[in-house]
Amino acid sequence: MIKQTAPYHIKIPKVTDSIERPLWSIVIPTYNCADFLKQTMQSVLAQDPGKALMEIVVVDDHSTKDNPEAVVKEYGQGRVQFIRQEKNVGKVKNYEAGLRASRGSYIHQLHGDDFVYDGFYSEMERLFNESPSAGAAFCRTNYIDSKSRVTGVTGMIQDNEGIVPDILEKLYTQQYIQTPSMVVKREVYEVIGCFDRRLNCMEDWEMWIRIANNYPIAVSNKVLAAYRSHQENATNSTFKDGTALKTHQLICSLVDSYIDPNLKKNFSKIRNRKQAAFWLLSYKNSKHELSLKQKWIFVSKILKLDFTLKNVYQLIKTWE
Q1: H or E stretch including 38?
Q2: For the CA atoms of 185, 187, 191, 195, what is the dihedral angle to 10 degrees?
Q3: 257 and 159, same structural domain?
Q4: Same domain, yes or no: 55 and 190
Q5: Is 215 among the domain residues?
Q6: What is the DSSP track for 236-250?
Q7: pTM for this structure?
Q8: Of 157, 190, 187, 162, which is closest to residue 174 (Cα–Cα)?
Q9: pLDDT tens, position by position, 24-63
């Protein structure tokens, strides 16, 4: 299943046996989001089992609008290592720096504007103990705004907790897993590499598919993570400038290059239908900020994915 795609999937080196390792590595990437970093760190520190079991690393992609190092010094309680890029390298390479710095068996990449609720780490540890074959595990996630108000929640991917037997088929058609809810064994990044360097948004979706293509993934139905959507975050900007639409097509092409041909044959139409629904919702939510040209790009994308009378009607209805 594993295909060599260097230099796009950079593999992190194994931790040498002579190094004392914690169970957990919490990697917090930041870029111009210091206003939220205090809450992010506090959500982790409230569950801190101590240095022997957990390390916490903030890796900053050369922020220009704020000072995350000052936040770490003031609120990190002496428990948080701070790494700053000498220049802006882009978020995927910044992720790599954090993953390379990690020593723990379980890696939790928690973006500097997201957070987790009490019980997250004990729940993830329980999942791995009960499903030792799992390469990764995740829980449900609240969507929150800039004021930390809950605006939505991810659904249940299955009724029972534990290994999701059809996780690859599910992820192939739709992104179900938000980054703050996902924990990955370090050995996974050692074997199949890190986030794809060709992607500048939605890189988590491709990463989770690649993991599911090689390892079982376990789920908890508890809501123990929070994903923040606000005007300044990287995801929103890519939707406005059209980058996300282009990257989406690239991700589909990359995944189709390594996925089982039978899975592609059986689920590509389902993927197109679900992705069209996703882009239609994104269009409805952002159309007031789009130019006429940008609106047309969205419309073309939606109809290319799933040309149906229902979608045509919805687009006409929401055009103005």
Answers
A1: helix 34-45
A2: 40
A3: no
A4: yes
A5: yes
A6: HHHHHHSHHHHHHHH
A7: 0.91
A8: 157
A9: 999 999 999 999 999 999 999 999 999 999 999 999 999 9
